[in-house]
Write a structure and sequence with these properties.
The structure is a single chain. By secondary structure, this protein is α+β, with helices and mostly antiparallel strands. The chain has one domain: 2-Layer Sandwich (TATA-Binding Protein). The chain has 3 helices and 7 strands. The protein has a 7-stranded antiparallel β-sheet with strand order 1-2-3-7-6-5-4, covered by helices on one side. Strand 4 and strand 5 form a beta hairpin. It is globular.
Amino acid sequence: MNMKNQRSSSFLRPLAGLLLACALLLQTGCVAVVAAGAAGTGVAWHSGRMETTLNHELDAVYAAAQKAVDKLEFARVSEKKSGVDAELIARTARDKKVEITLKRVDAKITRLGIRVGVFGDEALSLALLEQIKAQL
């Protein structure tokens, strides 16, 4: 190996490492498993959105979500529900958008998604989940 190739190689390796480290830092928080919930139901955090599965029918989870929004004193913006899915949009006092989505998996299982704000708020999402569970 000649001197010129050795110098460029020794320069490129740290630069490549730095670029890789920056790329990894930008990806932090995109996918992470948060915790295990009741009855073995896991909670996943992905791209600012929390998702979990509840062992309750869609109507019961929808009613619990409405009560949780009221209990946390969020302002309801919109509510939509069909026999297979539902969506509640609310706002916090600081005007953070709260999106709650429900999807019927089967007669007794509902998939719940929560996103707070643009990038997600893990603590508030978990607090909302706990409030929904308390209403079931």
